[in-house]
Amino acid sequence: MTITWNDSVPIYRQLRERVVAMILDGALNEGDPLPSVRQVAADFQINPLTVSKAYQELVDDQLVEKRRGLGMFVIDGAREALLKSERERFLREEWPALYARLQRLGLDLKTLLRTAPDSTLADGENQP
Question: Hey, which end of the chain has fewer CB within 10 Å, N or C?
Fold first, then answer.
């Protein structure tokens, strides 16, 4: 886990978002253990309470579970729940501003797909 901290967002929130990204990206799968609080705190030279707070938010969001004496583990269904909530958040919070900007710039879907970094999208393959 490589992290560059952003001073405008609390570290525990950034750490939580990094774990969420790892679950979404498949770096952490359902049933996988999270790195220990002590290990993360040592690796990133942050307070263990900061790590605990990030992990507790993941527990509160029902993405990970505490197993007494064993640690924290990604729960079954965490990735699907995250995909659903992140898609809803994107459509509610990010898409309207992005769509407005695309309109101002005169960009359409065909142009965007043609210039996409992944050339298979430009060919119309592997589209969701």
Answer: C
Supply 49's token pair. 């309470």
Domain range spanning residue 111? 79-122
* pLDDT (tens digit per residue) in 16-70: 999 999 999 999 999 999 999 999 999 999 999 999 999 999 999 999 999 999 9
CA distance 15 to 97: 26
pTM assigned to the model: 0.76
Residue ranges of alpha helices (H) inside 1-128 are 11-25, 37-44, 48-60, 78-89, 95-105, 109-114, 119-122
With respect to residue 6, please indicate whether it lies within any of the assigned structural domains: no
